Amino acid sequence: MKSEKPTLRTDDLLKRGFIHACEWRIIENRLKQSARLPDHPGVYAFCIDGVAQYIGLASKSLARRIYGYEKPGSTQRTNQRLNELLLAQAKSGISVQIVVASPPDFEWNGWSISGAEGLEAALIRDYSLPWNVRGSTAKVSAPRRNTPSPKRPTEGFNTNRHPGKYGPLRSFLEDCRQDRISMTFRQIEDLVGKLPKSASLYQAWWGNHEGNSQAKAWMGARYLVEANPAGRSVIFRKFEY
Biased-composition ranges for Polar residues (predicted)? Predict the structure, then answer.
């Protein structure tokens, strides 16, 4: 039986040679880096609340690689997926830090070995990184428009498959199989019971990162959430690995 991989702490990355480069922000309604990264190759990590969510490789230029997440091309599925995740975090008031490292290359028995490629592979192999996805078929589904909102969420659904307070929400989202689901807080409370006051007061409560039990529910069902606490409503949007 395989043991669960540990999380990768930002502090550990910094202690071992990574440096804090910048963070992701929303500027003029677009995803932007707070500072430009260097033009040399390296490894980068996107971190939330002191935990790495994603590890990536820039084989030529960190600056150009990270810029790809700001303006993903129509065929760049990984860039599209990460752009959506990063936008959702920034809109929810969650800070996503970017830390980088540029390990030196070395030679082994006459072969030139990339230190950056080796480091990226080792980190992905050894640690739990929620946003890293194997394979080249990862994609973000385009939301369907005019999807009707459920009036009675629990009606006709088996909502008892997953344990915990927010397990019924995950079960409901899995059964809906819609790309876009609008729900009021009241409809969510019909599933999970009364929401905490922080859900109405703080955008961060709706952050799309799996450090929160509530986020594990919708992200486990392959959804990201856009919340409007003042209006007591949310929109869940489907994404696919």
Answer: 138-149
List the chain domain ranges. Answer: 10-126, 167-238
**pTM metric for this prediction:** 0.60
- The strands making up 233-238's β-sheet, listed across from edge to edge, are 180-184, 233-238, 223-228
Q: Residue 33's closest CA among 8, 60, 65?
A: 65
Read off the amino acid at residue 193. G
Q: Tell me the mean pLDDT in the region 203-225.
A: 87
The Cβ-side half-sphere exposure at 87, using a 13 Å CA radius, reads 19
CA atoms of 149 and 186, how far apart (whole Å): 13
Q: Which CATH architecture best describes the domain 10-126?
A: 3-Layer(aba) Sandwich (3.40)
Q: Is the dihedral of CA 149, 231, 219, 46 positive or negative?
A: positive
